[in-house]
Amino acid sequence: MKNFWKSGDPYVWLTGGALMTSLLMVGGLLLLIGAKGLGFFWPEDIAQMRLKDGTVLLGRITGKEKIPSIVGDSEDRTRVHLKIGNRDLYGLDFKWVDEDRIEKIEFPLGAVVLERREWGDMYAFIEDIERDGVSLPGEEEGLWEALGGLIREARGIYSRIREIETEEIGRINYRIERKELKIKALKLKGKGGEEWGEGRVARLEAEIEGERALYLEKEKELEALYRKLNENDVVMKTADGRSKTVPVGGIVRAYRPNAMGVLLKLGLYGSKLKEFLLDSPRESNTEGGVFPAIFGTVFMVLIMSVAVMPFGVLAAVYLAEYARPGPFVQIVRICINNLAGVPSIVFGIFGVGFFIYGIGGTIDSFFYPEALPTPTYGTGGILWASLTLALLTLPVVIVATEEGLSAVPTAVKHGSYALGATKSETLRRVMIPTAMPGILTGLILAIARATGEVAPLMITGVVKLAPTLPIDANFPYVHLDRKFMHLGFHIYDVGFQSPNVEAAKSMVYATTLLLIAIVLVLTIFAVVIRSRLRKKYSFGEL
Amino acid sequence: MKRRRLEEIIVRWTVTLGGVGVILCIALIIFFIALEAVPLWRGASASLTGTFEVAQRDGAVPLAVGIDEYGEITYTVSGDGAVSFYSAKDGSLMSSRLLERLEGAGVAAVTPVSGQHGYALATDTGFVLPIEIKFLVSFDEGGRRNIEPWVYEGDPVRVSDGPLVLAAYASDEEGGRAVTAAVTAAGALIVVSEAAGDSIFTEGETLTKRYDLTPALRGSLPTQIAVDDFIENIYLGTNDGRLFQWHINDKANPSLEAVRDATPSRSVPVTALGFLLGGRSLVVGDAAGGVSVWFSVEDRASPSGRSLMRVHTLSPHDAPVTRLAPSFRNRGLISGDAAGKIIVHHATSERKLLELVSDGTPIAALAFAPRADGIVSVTGSGTQYVWALDNPHPEVSIKTLFGKVWYEGYPRPEYVWQSTGGTDEFEPKFSLTPLAYGTLKGTFYALLIAIPLAVLSAICASQFMHPSFRALIKPVIEIMAALPSVVLGFLAGLWLAPLIENYIPGVILWFIIMPPLILLSVFLWRLLPKDFRLRFRDGGELFFLIPVVIGGVLMCYWLNGPIQSGFFAGDYREWLFDTFGLRYDQRNALIVGFAMGFAVIPIIFTISEDALSYVPRHLISGSLALGATRWQTALRVVLPTASPGIFSAIMIGLGRAAGETMIVLMATGNTPIMDWSIFDGFRTLSANIAVEIPEAPHGGTLYRVLFLAAFLLFVVTFLINTVAEVVRMRIKKKYGNM
């Protein structure tokens, strides 16, 4: 026994325990998010539960847990978490069912999942299809097939409606808005005594009238489309025997998971994944896709990179090559390094005070006085968010670039000087190309950090739902003053601010998985580049 | 050749300018943040916009003065019963009229009534007349403002047949109830209570009750009287410096609630009474120049459950206080004295913001502009002064930010953060202490979990693991560092918090059983044949601990139920509450500890591991060669040498935890409470900024206080990081070339 303690092994194993716990935590976390995130798209079977009291429930089993035990209760009782959907009928999406109350669980082949644009999913059986109030003849199978065709047709109409609503009418509204602002601006100038504006104002007003007429036309077209969309209804019968009429136009997709094979399910999985990545969100972000958030994140990171790269590299080159080495430069270096440890929210509040109220407010009063008091740049927007993140990631780029520059072997540098190159030539032709992997590492790390950062963004321009993307078909095409959506904020918002957190949870897991995937791929990329770089130049000093 | 030299010069200048510019920009951040917070400390400033003589007639001593919301028209109510309106620009008399319902009586005293321009007039013929000055604002075609003043006269209340010297009046909004308190020239205190009948027999009638409260005074002579807006209390100041408080309601007789000595001695009379915004705090001015604020504080010992207390003592005057006037925007007030000096105070922060001097004669009437952006006063010589006031942040002082403050309605001084409230009369409370406490608490619990795990892991990875394993482990941990904090916060708040809530005993058990379990596995390991054991590379055997850790978790999962029913009577939450009085908050410090610990572990691990790896190989080899075991070497040789590095790792981890925003925002309830309990939530400085800044109006007090919080956060994390960085560079230098 004495030997046991003396060998030191127990202590070693204790430290090992800590290490293994840390590793397991990372692994477990990634596994959890992976499973929950990917599972979100899988069309799971629908269970029909017959309870002992005669109630019949239809839904997707989402979990099982022990019922918190009561004193003296030795038997472990479990309960099942069932997603029953049909929010319009039941009010709640989820239900706990004690396992000992269940008499029988079946998986009926005819159970249909309707993904709807409103009220969430519906789990029920198909009963009837009504076309303009007239029932369609046919058995369940026949009806099911007919429904497929009708949904496809409705989807076509719906996408046309969306196109008109968001793009065409949006464009008209945008033009009207701009023209109205122009009139306001002309009138503002007119107060200064200039007379020439009157004719232009009249012309603009006429143009606005024209746009309004166009708008009305579109409105009529929309009305016709909507009528067509709502022509057909499908009558569904829920497990407890209630009938519910659902307009076919409001159905995103319908499927019968219990009757599907693995291949079919995989196909559906793909289509759901595609919807997630490429579509706009529905039902206050709890359903549909996250495309605007992906777009916003990428665009913001892009602007940030454009802003941070030149300045970061410039500062690093200055510190490494041009500044006279000494205690002062050393202090500056430490400060820059420490800046990376300053809380991101501090940068955020700086962005609010300096960019939004300071610079944005000034821009507004000089260039957009006609829109005041509605701020144009004097409020959060993608430009300010990007610049705030650029400041936040500046130290990362500076430190990595400096490291890259100092990793360039002095022999190489001296060789360049010996061949008669000037300092700037050496820098341009030798140093920077050689240090490029280091600079890139910095950029990638900066992008990874910016992608995952939320706190400074949520106060400088991220919103839960942006009606328009920062880039669109309206002049001037790139709108840096617009608010935008962001994956990280999407997680926070849907997970913590949405009214129906339970139903939104799986969506958040999927978004989380996406965000983590982006960040991790970038980070791993940076780590690989960096280790390559270190290997390549590590013997240069010998 | 020339082109090359030109290029050289251009590049040099561009790089130098750019580099220095970027560095200056970074420095600008801290200056900008500090600059945004600086105006908090600036006091008030005022500029005199007009002085003019008020038309003086016989007996027309101005007793009250006021100004309209836009600062265009001033008015006076004078002793001859006239209300006069003047232009605030040039002092010209716009109109003047005698109040009709006075019927020629003279006015002895004027007391403000709730609302901004309401007054109660005590007449020399024994009745009290409530009046209100109103301003009708209209805009003409061109958008120009037109203000038309007029006077509303209420129903006179007959109090006595002889002349009155003092009167106070209050009525409720619907006019259903009114209380008049008046003092006659003979020193008698009469209270008249009027209430609209509410039973079927008395409907449409007014029930009037009269009370004579003179006996309660026991010979003291009343000098000041006031009735609060809620028609609940009558306050009375006397010539021997006492303050009386009566409770009134429409059912019972007034009851004497409290008698307090409000002035330094019996020879110092109370000379002025007034209410702060909200009507709950009473301000008392005395002949020695003292100004103090009183309100009823919860007190179990007193029969009514409350007792009147002196809560704030404000900056004193050198001469007797003659007039008090509250601000209608915050808990500020102005006081004027017999030497013509006016002081601008803020009651809660007890700040003296400004001192204004007029002509040296006593201040006869004094008022705040409705928007608190101006002061108007009339001196004894009949001169009216109008000041424009700039008083942006009166409620903030070092004490209100960091110390305990006694807020209105609170039983004792407390640290409170509460930036918004439901009503206009709400007073924002900006104590940064609970937030700093929350930051410390979150950081503490995060480090409590992170330090042991990270430092032990680093020791293990750097000392007992074969380099090939290390090459595997380090990137994994680095990936951990890259996880966005919003992800950790989400998991902590929505997955971990509900999960752990049911398994708290199990979680605690895990920390207890893990060490013995590991020791047991070592023991079992040593029982295995040596041939088998030697087959593993350094540290390879430690991977056997993975199933052990997982087994521990499973064991705790199974044991959770039995433990709960065995030790905690079925539900540990009830047990906690019954035994220690602790509440269990689902999103609590433990959850934050786990999530933030997770965020901090990779930072501490990486830096400690680096520091441990810097320890020169020959030291370790020497120790091993002398026969020390690998644990002895690690503990006695490596750890002391690398301890500064580990210290700096912990410091950097601390800095990160202190500034973390999203995790605490999502994993705690964000209530700014001060409680050490691990099962309670908190709010940190950083989360507070994120929560409040979108609601903070630009340039307002909240906005600047948040910048101050950001500044503190910046400075603290920067200092912590600098210490860590300096230590790290030292050891790098020391052992780097060995």
Describe this structure in words.
The complex is a heterodimer of chains A (542) and B (738). Chain A has 542 residues and is of the alpha+beta class. Among the domains of chain A are: 47-107, SH3 type barrels (Roll), CATH 2.30.30; 291-537, MetI-like fold, CATH 1.10.3720.10. Chain A has helices at 2-6, 9-39, 87-90, 140-190, 197-229, 262-278, 291-322, 327-339, 344-367, 382-407, 410-418, 423-452, 455-458, 487-496, 501-537; strands at 47-51, 56-66, 78-83, 94-98, 102-106, 112-116, 121-131, 134-135, 232-237, 243-247, 251-255, 281-282, 287-288. In chain A, a hairpin with a 5-residue loop joins β9 (232-237) and β10 (243-247). In chain A, α10 (382-407) packs across α12 (423-452). In chain B, α5 crosses α10 (589-614), α10 packs across α12 and α14 (685-692) crosses α15. The two termini of chain B are 47 Å apart. Chain B is elongated and about 120 Å long. In chain B, a hairpin with a 5-residue loop joins β4 and β5. By secondary structure, chain B is of the alpha+beta class. In chain B, strands 6, 7, 8, 9 and 10 form a 5-stranded antiparallel sheet that branches. Helices cover 39% and strands 28% of the residues of chain B. The chains are: A alpha+beta (542), B alpha+beta (738).
Report how far apart the termini of chain B are. 47 Å
Indicate the overall shape of chain A: flat
Mean residue pLDDT of chain A: 85
The level-1 CATH class of the largest domain in chain B: Mainly Beta
Number of strands of chain B: 31
**Most strands sheet of chain B:** 5 strands, antiparallel
User: Which strand-content bin applies to the residues of chain B?
Assistant: 25-35%
The CATH topology name of the domain at 291-537 in chain A reads: MetI-like fold
Low-confidence stretches of chain B: none
Distance between the termini of chain A: 50 Å
Radius of gyration of chain B: 36 Å
Largest sheet of chain A: 6 strands, antiparallel
Helix content of chain B: 25-40%
What's the overall geometry of chain B?
elongated
* Number of structural domains of chain B: 2
CATH top-level class of the domain at 291-537 in chain A? Mainly Alpha
- Helix content bin of chain A: 55-70%
Helix/strand class of chain B: alpha+beta
Number of strands of chain A: 13
Mean pLDDT of chain B comes to: 87
